[in-house]
Amino acid sequence: AYNAAVAFRRAAEAGHVEAMRELGLALRDGKGVRIAKAEARQWLTKAAAAGSGPANYELGRTILQGAQVE
């Protein structure tokens, strides 16, 4: 999972929208990386703003779960 998180980060930083979503989920859930809810929300917000419906959904779930602050 760590290698996937590294690949998602590289792709997300390069502007790949679905990688932004996947990185956000990994950070939110601690999949291959340490949990970082504030950063997770940032990546999900970027992906949602870029038009990703699934990221928008996950952002809503994240906020409802109380992840708006660490």
What is the strand tally?
A: 0
The total of helices stands at 4
Sheet-strand content, in percent, reads under 5%
The main β sheet shows up as: none
Order of helices and strands: HHHH
Rg (C-alpha, Å):
11 Å
pLDDT below 50 for ≥5 consecutive residues: which ranges? Answer: none
Outline: globular
Structural class: mainly alpha
| Mean pLDDT across residues | 92
Please report the distance between the alpha carbons of the first and last residues: 23 Å
What helical percentage do the residues reach? over 70%
Description:
By secondary structure, the chain is mainly α. Helix content is 71%, strand content 0%. Helix 2 packs parallel to helix 4. The longest helix is centred in the first third of the chain and has 13 residues. The relative contact order is 0.18.
Task: List the keywords.
70 residues; mainly alpha; globular
What layout of secondary structure does this protein have?
Elements: H1 2-13, H2 17-29, H3 37-49, H4 53-64
Question: Can I get a quick summary?
Answer:
The protein has 70 residues and is mainly α. The chain has four helices and no strands.
